[in-house]
Sequence to fold (1120 residues):
Amino acid sequence: MTELPLIGEAIADAPAARGLAGARIGVITFPGTLDDRDAARAVRLAGATPVALWHADTTLGDVDAIVIPGGFSYGDYLRAGAIARFAPLMAKVIDAANSDAKLPVLGICNGFQILTESHLLPGSMIKNDHLKFMCRDQILRVENTSTDWTGDYQPGQEITIPLKNQDGQYIADEKTLDALEAEGRVVFRYVGFNPNGSRRDIAGISNAAGNVVGLMPHPEHAVEAGFGPESLDGIGGSDTEGLGFFTSVLNKIVGDTK
Amino acid sequence: MTETSTGPAAGNATETKKFNIDTVENAAKTPDTELPWAELGLKQNEFDEVVKVLGRRPTGAELAMYSVMWSEHCSYKSSKNHLRQFGEKVTEEMKKDMLVGIGENAGVTNLGDGWAVTFKIESHNSPSFVEPYQGAATGIGGIVRDIISMGARPVAVMDPLRFGAIDHPDTARVMHGAVAGIGGYGNSLGLPNIGGEMVFDSVYQGNPLVNALAVGVMRHEDIRLANASGKGNKVVLFGARTGGDGIGGASVLASESFDDTKPSKRPAVQVGDPFAEKVLIECCLELFKGSLVEGIQDLGAAGISCATSELASNGDGGMEVELTSVLLRDPTLTPGEILMSESQERMMAVVTPENIAAFEAVMDKWAVEYSWLGEVTDTGRLIITWEGEVIVDVDPRTVAHDGPVYDRPYARPEWQDAVQADSFTGSVQDAGRPSAPVELAAAITELVASPNMCDKSWITRQYDRYVGGNTALAMPDDAGVVRVDEETGLGVALATDANGRYTYLDPYHGAQLALAEAYRNVATTGAVPMAVSDCLNFGSPEDPDVMWQLAEAIRGLSDACMVLGIPVTGGNVSLYNQTGTVPIHPSPVVAVLGKFDDVARRTPSGWREDGQAVYLLGTTAAELDGSEWSNLRGHLGGLPPKVDLAAERALGEILINASRDGMVDSAHDLSEGGLAAALVESSLRYGVGARIALQDVLDRDGVDLFTALFSESQGRAIVSVPRSEEIRFKDMCTARNFPHLRIGVVDAEGGTLEINGVETMSLEALREAHEATLPKYFG
Amino acid sequence: MPRIVVDVMPKPEILDPQGKAIVGALPRLGFTAFSSVRQGKRFELMVDGEVTEEILAQARDAAETLLSNPVIEDVVNVEVVEA
Fold:
């Protein structure tokens, strides 16, 4: 098991040039975060360098993108993501996402919840309609391949990604939902089965610029042969249909610096 | 350095809350003071023993400590004499990979390459009946803390569950709560649930069994033990604050059966906070990485009483603690209550003075509260003070280790012979045994839809199986498999099994059958079995019938461990599982841990490739007593299937070699539900059918088709073999003289399971029946 | 010690799955008088000393920015309760 560097240690300055492996993708850990190691593994498998970030840091360091991973930050106390969004590092993430540089930010599950609580993305998640925690291999349709995180997919491509959460029901008012649809900002939609009652079967959305994407399912659990939905449950075309998230942003970063 | 005396300020006469502190000095002067030892769960002889040990009456605080630590749950007083066999019947072969054996928080086994694995299974039964969610949740919390305290990162959990009749309204109450609690706590810790069991039987109606297993991994140098050594080293309590949780829970609950004529007990059940435990895990791992603690102990049953007395008695023998330093959630707790509290998510550690600052830095980073309670001494005494006055002065060994040991009387029950003579075969419930093809198809469908054999997704999809990214196999496969080393693929497999029906019929062999099944499950996935943990769930040890069941089960299990060559490295005993005078079936749950050199080689339980040959390994006899079929017909009697441990070893070796060398694509062992269940399960696993013919089995073993399908003879498995591997596979079995028969072929086209002599069953219909049961009862 | 009570309820248009489960369970226990249930949250904020207008304003502010998520919840009550 390769461990991330101890959280909170100073991040060394990175080289100016960005080859594939030079691309640095930050993964934030809050107290209660669970899937940070998995997100780091996904970054590594895609060919980039994961950078461990601590919620209390006041600087992002020199990262090219950010992943806010899944888990139960602060125990989901008050509301999922409600406390994490006020972390010192999140202020920097919000600035960087809104800046001219438009830092790519991916929020997975609890990360998506933190993004909606921070208002980087509209809407909110409430309890699954059936009230239980649900872990299943979910088919998603990728509907927007222009975001920073979906460039490597084909429009309309169906992928199988593990879903596992208790509070994954995406809701927003009709006006917001209509706008999301009209602007093509619904990035992923549940196919075949809506696992939590999310409005319009929405599994994930983006901001207008396409650099901030949030989704409830966990692509970082579908990145390694032998450990994905196909091997574990015989579902889906392959174990690695989530890898595209991480290669997409990597290609975007490398492409941008050419 | 912290602070926080939360007791009443000395000399402050206006404080509204004052404790009458019963000091040691006071106790020595007032020998005739009445003490509530009976209410606290002690028996007269035990109280007398405490007085003898101390040479005076105990103080209130000392009484509290002895009462919880000498409870059945903590002291194992009724089972200790028998449990010795696990430590005695150990060969050199069994010891070679054991790094830490019985006696510590959990056993540790060497995996090679500098890696070690620790695992243990424990019960949290009574609390789960009283408050299913919190009872089950804190069961997970407790076993995970045991694993952390060994120096490991916990990596997976499992949950063997046994509840009452599926259609009884109270079962739904327990089911919903317990499953939500296990998921709620385990998922929040980031631990994948990789397997478990679900058995419904009315014997568990008032006494549901919630057992929890946790497994963790560490490098050899990270192994930590629970001892306090080094005079002058500091003792620190960290994690959650101490409140009134579970006061008397350990001693009160586990030592008293539920009496359905008295009003229900309302003990204080522990309430868990998984977020606090997740933070504690990360905190502890940083402490271990920095070598900042000399010894560490988690606080479970009997809280601070246990942690202090165990740390002290395992180490140099002495400790001094100022109890007002404990951070409290509830300022009204008396010293005795503080000592008995079972508030969750707390750990105690021993830290050298040089490491104090670094220790505090880790705590501050994770915002974990801590308080320095005292230090290690060389006096051989555990001294606890309250604002400087001594309220506890004991030899910690008398609290933690040298408690009473009972030689409970036991005798083979008078009714055992009659039960064993009452075979299913020929009984009134056996009348009208299915034989026509359509009857057999209906019987198979009934079997796979039955509560104990049906699909368990209703439960398992409430558990996260993915977190950590190292789960290579999970339910419904035969064992859970977790990768330990991402570079080499080194990993572990785990399975838990028990059969209360077999064990009721014959406790000695029933326990052996549980071990055999778990062993077989692990080998079926391709892992080499290495270690055992057991959770012995039985009725009241004061009932000689039950005590006989316990004695026989331990004897059987320890004997079997020797034959299979794998040691018990730790475990748990849960007694008094009965309502009134009716005990549960003796239910020894056995967990087996196995090792994979490379988890990529693991074998799933279902076939996928058209045309592969299906082989049946092992032989079948007419063994229906105690079977799932007999359960469906309402019969329990006769003798359980024969145990042949040499055959299990041989079968295991075949399955492991076949897996390693790619000779089989799937393997599924036979157990409850026999061949019928196994064939259906292997077909439904990936939705691929097969065409099966059993005439060769009938001819060779001299059984009829019904028997071949429903008998639960041991030492058997079915495998699917690629055509290219068939000769190699057959040769291997022949060379080992192991019975093997080709019984059919995988059929990916037909969408059916065809068994000659049985009406063809569509996979869709089988799946529908298999998957409808739990949702029907639980929504 | 005075405290400020803040009550937060899901917005009327939000489907409340927990409330729905509760109203389903009540009749099973013999409580048949209730046509619907909505589940909210109650917060108690302790104040050392007197609750001034400024402190009350802080409470309202906290209610809007942290204690509730305005996308899905309304602050329906902020009131001072004497000890």
About this structure: Chain A has one domain: 19-257. The CA atoms of residues 109 and 216 of chain A lie 4 Å apart. Confidence is low (pLDDT under 50) at residues 1-17 of chain A. The two ends of chain A are 34 Å apart (CA to CA).
